[in-house]
Structure formats: structure tokens, C-alpha cells
Amino acid sequence: MADEWVFPKGELMRGKRGLVMGVANDKSIAWGIAQQLAAQGAEIAFTYQGEALEKRIRPLAESVGSQIVLECDASNDAHLDAVFDRLKTSWGKLDFLVHSIAFAEKSELKGSFVENTTRENFLRAMDISAFSFVAAGKRAAKLMDRGGSMVTLTYLGAERVLPSYNTMGVAKAALEACTRYMARDLGPEGKRVNAISAGAMRTLAIAGIQGGRGLISTGREWSVMKEDTSMEGIAGCALWLLSDLGRSTTGEVVHVDAGFHIVGVPDTGGAE
Q1: How far apart are CA 105 and CA 118, in angstroms?
Q2: Residues that bind NAD(+), according to the entry (predicted)?
Q3: Of 46, 84, 165, 260, which residue is the catalytic one?
Q4: How many CB atoms within 10 Å of residue 198?
């Protein structure tokens, strides 16, 4: 993947160590964030789920000098315990956590939410997409000194009804609520918890949504900036929230979508 979009190297994250969960490939938002953090001096550990993802992630991790790449099923407490035990043994403490994990059955992302959603798959989507942030955050917080920061990735489907999002939209709404309650609980310890609501981008996640390409083009056409959501913008937002620049910001859902989320009716440029 070309790195021309990465911000100039700096020292904002020098001496900080953190875990990035949910990189799927070199187009992942989580990977874009990891690249930016590494460019600013951060030391990063990664998790993956399954052999297929391990083959993709290890070379990426090596490219940013990562020495810790661990298997983790985010719905498995034993896996989570093993990951954070390893981080405690290797590093002693943690400065930041990036959570970019979500799942919903593809069959339940289209058609009628009421008719197609099953109890089993609804609970699984909530577990992996929302509770996994709580579970990982609980463990990460125990390794953080004052000033630790956590970021998760959400989407506008948590706030508004979007076609072919259904169960995932409900799970993302729960994730955003989890962010606020985690921020409340961890705030007295000096730990910050925020979410980034990124616009539609060409990722594996959007590829799994029927009409995903349409969401990307609509996002560009309706946005107030008339442009695609950029990886630079998302990674820059994460850098702000995870670095000391983000001090005093917590419990927020920050939209990075070229202003798409503020539009009620698109401006067609027609006369009144």
C-alpha cells in the first residue's frame, strides 16, 4: 500500500505503546490509523483472528516494526486474557487501545430488519461489535496509567436508518452508548474513551454491505466538502484523540465524513 497519505513523521506518540485490534488488510481504517501512530513514534501490538488474517497482518505489522502480533477472538474471554497478559509481561503498561472490530451476518444486513433479524445472530452481533470494546477496554484500563486513551470505530448507521445496515446499525448504536458509559467510569482515572464515526470508504466492511459502492458515491455527492472521506482525516483524528493533544476530550463520537452527517436534504444546485 502506498504511504503517500501518511502525515509527516513526528514525535507525538514517541514512548507510547498501544494495541490495535481489527486490521483486516492494507485498506483497513485500523491499518491507516496504525500507520499514522507508527509514523509519530508509537510502538504497536496487533491482534488477528484466524490463519487467513494472520497471513495478511504479520507483514503489515513487520512494516511498522511491530514485535507483538497475537491471535484473538474478541468474543472469547480466554483469548482476551491471554492478549493482555502478554502485553503486561512484555510492556508492563499500555498507553492506548484502537478497537475496530464488528460482525453481523450478511443475510441480516439486507431487506427487512424486523423480518430478517434472528435472536441468535442479533446477540452475536452485539457481542462482537459492541461488548468486545467493553471487554477489551476493561483489560486495557488495568494496564494504563493516567492519560491512557481508547478509540473505537463506528458509523452513521448508528444514528440514522441506512439501507442494508440493519443489525449492524443497532450494534453500532450500542457501541456508541458503551463509549459514553466507559468514558464516565474511566474518566476519574484520567483515561479517555472516544469513537470515530468514519464516512463510507473502500474497505472489506463496506464490501460486505449490499449497495456499499452507492454509499461511497452518495457520501461524496452529499457531503458539504464534495469529496470522499480520506484516510488522512480519519488517521489524523485518531492521532489527536490518542495523543496528549486529545486531553480533556472524552465520551465523544467524532464524525470524519467530509460533513456528510450534517446534511438533511442534499443541495442539488437547483433554483428556488
Answers
A1: 10
A2: 22, 28-29, 49, 101, 172
A3: 165
A4: 26
Q: Is the pLDDT of residue 248 over 80?
A: yes
115, burial (CB in 10 Å: exposed 0-12, middle 13-18, buried 19+): exposed
Average pLDDT over residues 43-47: 98
3-state secondary structure of 13: coil
Record: fold of 17-260: Rossmann fold (3.40.50)
210 is in an annotated binding site: no
Amino acid found at 115: E
Is residue 101 a known part of a binding site?
A: yes
Spot the catalytic one: 84, 96, 155, 222.
155
Side by side, the strands of the sheet bearing 96-99 are: 68-71, 43-48, 17-21, 96-99, 149-154, 192-198, 253-256
Rounded to whole angstroms, the Cα distance separating 57 from 27 reads: 11
Q: Let me know if 165 is a catalytic residue.
A: yes
Query: Is 49 known to sit in a ligand binding site?
Result: yes
What distance in Å separates the CA atoms of residue 267 and residue 272, rounded to the nearest whole number?
Answer: 11
Known binding residue 226? Answer is no
- What is the residue extent of each domain of the chain? 17-260
Average pLDDT over residues 37-50: 97
CA angle (126 as vertex; 123, 132 as ends), nearest 5: 125
CA proximity to 29, closest of 171, 170, 204, 225: 204
The reported pLDDT for the residue numbered 262 is: 81
Asked if pLDDT for residue 155 goes beyond 80, the answer is: yes
- DSSP, residue by residue, 33-90: HHHHHHHTT-EEEEEE-SHHHHHHHHHHHHHTT--EEEE--TT-HHHHHHHHHHHHHH
Residues 173-202 pLDDT 10s: 999 999 999 999 999 999 999 999 999 876
What residue type is 63 in one-letter code? S
